[in-house]
Amino acid sequence: MKEVVVGELLRKCRVEKGITQKDLCEGICSISTLSRIENGEQHPTRSVFNMLVSRMGEDIEYDDYMGDYDYEVYNLTRMAMGYLERNEKGKANICIQKLQYICDGEDCGTKEKCICKFMELLSACIDYKPKGVWTEFIEVNQYGYHLYEEVKSLLKLSGATKNDDSKLDRIEIRMVNLMGYGLYISKDYRKAIDVWVKLLDGYRSRCEDEVIYAKEMAALYSNISAGLCGLGLYDEAEIFVDKGLRYSFEGGGLRLTNKILINRMYCLSQKGDLDKAYKDLTLSKAIGTCCQKDILKGEMLKKLPKTPYLIQIF
Questions:
Q1: Helix, strand, or coil here: 207?
Q2: Among candidate residues 231, 151, 138, 243, the one with its CA nearest the CA of residue 190
Q3: Smaller CB count within 10 Å for the chain: N or C?
Q4: In the 8-state DSSP scheme, what is residue 44?
Q5: For residue 191, how many other CB atoms are within 10 A of its CB?
Q6: Distance (Å, whole) CA 140 – CA 64
Q7: pTM confidence score
Q8: What is the DSSP string of 124-153?
Q9: pLDDT by residue for the chain (314 residues), tens digit each?
Q10: Are 175 and 206 in contact (CB under 8 A)?
Q11: In whole angstroms, how large is the CA radius of gyration of the chain?
């Protein structure tokens, strides 16, 4: 584990130079914090790590041992995504505010600033509602394309889009999914599908760890089905949503399965296959009862959906 490796590294350097824990951490962190770091019980933040190695006169790169992201930034991001997935916006916003504070500092790198901006966009788009009936279509289109361009620029800034075969970390995969979301709500369904299909086709090869996660695959298949629904291709959409459900059953969880069921209900109802659609509705209600809170603002789904459901990857 990285925290063990970096802890051993810091301890080895300190002992070799004959520096006590008290002298090393003075003005940087507490002795107990340094002890936990050296014992592999805690990650050092980028700033703490850099100050410790600088005081020892060492030239050691944080990224070589802790990865591309500052641990504190990465941890806050994961916490915020978890809260957003559970519709706990208040707690998510607290994490995002902490991210903003950290990323305003001089020691914060470009990738950390990109992830902070991405979390702001992700949180805002979940609750986005157009103002007024007359401007609704124009507003949604403008917002969707703005979201697409913003996330695209973040990916470019972080160095993730040098070419179509660029490796992506798990956070960058979520950024690409959000690009498709922006295009979808702009009703540019074909381009949205293209973004999701390219990510799906190169999923294993483009992931830095080359690991397939059922949750991510399920979300991508489901979102492609939503795009196909937008084009009126309901038979094709049903094929993709069924694939999404299979991945969700493998490891997506009940809430994700329920979200994907919304897309299959929509496909079936548009095709006129109401018997199957109502069976899915019954299943959705049962899952909602198990979860004890609905996937959409805490209310049980009581009738067939009028629109597909887009899934953010958290």
A1: strand
A2: 231
A3: N
A4: P
A5: 16
A6: 43
A7: 0.70
A8: HHHT---SSSTTHHHHHHHHHHHHHHHHHH
A9: 344 467 778 888 898 889 999 999 999 988 888 888 887 767 777 788 888 988 998 877 766 555 545 667 777 888 888 888 777 888 888 988 888 888 887 667 777 788 888 888 888 877 665 444 334 555 667 778 888 888 888 888 776 665 566 677 778 888 889 999 999 988 899 999 999 999 888 877 777 666 678 888 899 999 999 999 999 999 999 999 999 999 988 877 777 888 889 889 999 999 999 898 888 888 887 777 766 554 444 445 567 878 777 787 76
A10: no
A11: 23
Q: What are phi and psi of 175, to 5 degrees?
A: -65, -45
- How is the chain split into domains, by residue range? 2-66, 68-127, 129-205, 213-314
102 burial level (CB within 10 Å; 0-12, 13-18, 19+): buried
Task: In whole angstroms, give the CA distance from residue 48 to residue 42.
Answer: 12
Name the 3-class secondary structure at 168: strand
Asked if 190 and 231 touch (Cβ cutoff 8 Å), the reply is yes
User: In CATH, which superfamily holds the domain spanning 2-66?
Assistant: lambda repressor-like DNA-binding domains (1.10.260.40)
Give the CATH architecture of domain 213-314.
Alpha Horseshoe (1.25)
Identity at 288, one-letter amino acid code: G
Rounded distance between C-alpha atoms, residue 142 and residue 26, angstroms = 52
